Amino acid sequence: MLLFPRLKLFPRSKQVQFNVVVFTRCCETYAKLANTCKMVQVLNVAEKNDAAKNIAELLSRGRMNRREGKSKFNKIYEFEHNLFNQAVKMVVTSVSGHLLSSDFVGNYKKWQGINPVALFEAPIHKFCSEDYQNIKRTLEDETKKSKYLIIWTDCDREGENIGYEIIQVCQAIKPNIGVFRAKFSEITYQSVARALQNLGPPNKNVSDAVDVRIELDLRIGAAFTRFQTLRLQKVFPNSLGQSMISYGSCQFPTLGFIVERYRAIEDFVDEKFWKLKVVWELNEEERVEFLWKRHHLFNQTVVQILLEKCLENPEADIVKVQTKNKSKWRPLPLDTVELEKLASRKLRINAKETMKIAEKLYTQGYISYPRTETNIFPKELDLNPLVQCQTVDPSWGGFAQRVLDEGLNPRQGKKSDQAHPPIHPTKYAGNLANENERKLYEFIVRHFLACVSKDAQGYETVAEIQIQEEGFVASGLQIVARNYLEVYPYERWSDRSLPLLNQGEQFTPTSITMEEGATCAPQLLSEADLISLMEKHGIGTDATHADHIETIKARQYAGVQADGRFLPCSLGMGLVQGYDAMGIALSKPNLRAELEADLKRVCDGERSPNEVLREQIDRYRQVFVQAMEQVTKIDEALSTFFDEERQEAPAPYPDVGLDGNTSYCKCPSCNLDITLRRKKDNNGFFFSCMGYPQCKNAIWLPTTVQQVEIDAQTCTACPSHPPLVRFKFNPGAYAPFYPDTHRCCIGGCDPNFMELLGIRPLVSQPRNQNNPQSNNTRTANESRNSSGYASGSQSFASSANSTRSSGVGVTTSIPPPRPQAQPRPATSSNTRIVSGSSNRNTRPPAPPAAPAANQSNASSQPYFRQPMPLPQRPENNSDTVIVCNCSQDAMLLTVRKEGPNTGRQFYKCAKQQDGCNFFLWADTPAPVPSSSEAGEATFRQPAVRNQPPDGGDSETCCYCDGGREPATIRTTQKPGPNCGRQFYCCGKPREVQCKFFEWVDDNGASGGGFDQGPQEAFGRGGAGSSRGTISSRGRGRGRGRGSSNESSATGERKTRKCGNCGQEGHTRNRCPDIE
Fold this sequence. Notes:
By secondary structure, the protein is of the alpha+beta class. Helix content is 28%, strand content 18%.
């Protein structure tokens, strides 16, 4: 049977033979595909797509397949290769620099309301930003199919850290994947093949050093930048109102170098000097100038005397003629710093652009790795092929061939980073279109050929003469072999002719004169000068110098003149002068140089990264606090540079001291800090989790709290021992149970106090999957014993639950109700009451128990008194006066609108404008609150009767001073039914007086809270859907909000009716009459 019966291209015998061949090849192809499917896959990740493409092309010899990944900028290249003594499938892809970013978590990312001091200890987490999610997904997908991972990132500190970010992502998918590091210095076949044959482990120490640097830069930079920006924008709104005033521990010392040179020029005072000069003109073409061996003197009289002495007998004696070989050394191999400096000086290309071009040339395979500190060619590096590939160039090809013929003789420096060789060309590039790329590549090639060539040779003749014992010197140069200068036009060495002079001869000079000169101020710094200073003092690294310079230019701290020299701007000058006036060396290189030295020790394994991190954070935190204390010196310094009158800036963080200690405890849900904060409208305080919005744990304090401070003493009753909190309340707000100043714990050990304030303890919530507190989150003190309460967070929650009733729920970010003057207690419901009417049953809190022993008070112990039972309000009492929330007589009106309430009377606020929203049906009976009934109340202190020793009349006191301050009697002047009636009130000025009020003729009843007779109403009780007070025989000052659920006079609760049809047994949302 034929395999292809319809394919009749040959006779039958040959057709069968043809089909057999086709069948055999199909089987071979199938077997090959099956074998490929069983191949081990190796994932290779480079730092950039160009590098990945070139590496794959070199290793595959051009036989690679390309396919798309999740990211359109990062392709995937596949080919087969022999590795680990077996055939493997190589998958090469890339990232785009750093894959992960670092930032603060939760509220710490906000500029407003966070004291910058807290940023030195705030939690930091690493995350993959949205822009790099596709790259991350590509790595995750390929990791699932791979057995090994090879890191091909740049072999420097940043490259090692990027490698560990890749490892972190891949090991999260496959923890047991084998990880290897490829080390290479250039993207050539020899280099990448050698790297593949000599795979090793990645260097964790180097990556840790980068992590330390990143975290410190984030903490220090964010703290100082927020501090400077938020303050100076307010002090100089016209000049700096929209400016970002950043700080960096490298950029500020860099700015300091510029300012220091500018000051040196400004402070320079030139000084005149005088010198002698001898000229001998043999003929019109030959002229010799002899320089004075004393150089110059600053005393004109002395020089004049010496001149006259020489002129007395001007005969010159040739005392010495010396001829010697003179060499001009070829340049050293090129490292990064020299590349930046020479490109700036010789090519007029700034350092930032130089490194950008060099990076591009490197990824294209034209030059070796451009970030290196080495200026020594390693012995194992064969330089002959590198020179050979340059012989084809028409400009320098002949010189390259002559170097090969004469033999390479590279000059060696003294520096080596043990990672990369000096910068050199790796292949010929004759088709570069960009002018700057072409200029930089040509410079690198010429520099390389010069350093492997020979020094320039010449003869130097030095002649010394004497006139009246004053010595003068002249020199001449004759070049005999230019050597490297032939290919290196960036340096000059010219002949200086000197006539034939013989020792012992005499001649008469043409002229002997005295010349006047003056000392010159130093020049402003060029970019090359600035880089030299940064390298000398250890500011940044060879890879970051250009970035720091660009930053101070972008922030307008310094500018560049037409000649390429740096001039400080007004803002930069003011900042440096301000910090210098504080005595803080932020503009000096010392702090950053010490950090760079410590990072080097971390790389070498000599120091622990956590130890270095802790030391540097403490050091900079101390400097920051000092800066905050003396911030006005920055204002004063900048005011001299801005044509604007400085404004008085309020204290940006009034809630806390300079130490920024607002942390109360650790959140039981996410383990981040619970901090004390002020509300946005500055009308109160609250405790909230710094993990917001992922974590919404919070404690909202009522507006009756005037001031809150976290105390140094801790609670001994709670297992986690949180700190005590000092409260200052509105006068009389919680009398007689608590004084106006009280210190206690809010961890849950005093449930009565918390219920009185309407707050609940923090408990653990279900963890949100987006919670910032993850494995990638760390705090500054993560590696040492924390001074917070992280270890007690769970016990903190459990203790709270054990001391509360089952009705206590989780506190969220919903704020509690905000009363106008007096507080409302918390309800027993798990849902907080908000302003307006409420349909939820409430109950008044039980009287507070005696505080725990550890809860000491700033003033005397609170005066405890059991409240009286709440009596029924008389329903038909003609003397009843209805008072609205404005403490005014309410207006009685009648419903005119057609409907079920037509003709029904109600009370509302009498004010036409700015009135309250008080509303109460006139026929609504008052509820009788009970332990299971609605009827919200706040305990107001009754009038205190101080009984005299002689048994006379008792004295009425207000709430002040714990109920010991005598009240004042005043008379009602306002026209109305109470005109002329006397009442008691606080005797202090209106701004500071407490809320005590009582009619004199009430016979001891308290209109402010607990009325003593059986007919008085509870001071904050009330019925209806709004807030109000009903008082028999007088008006109480308390304002309460009752339940909208009506109660009978006997205290029995009425059956709830439908709001639509008025029938019992169902509610409005289940009404059968609603379709």
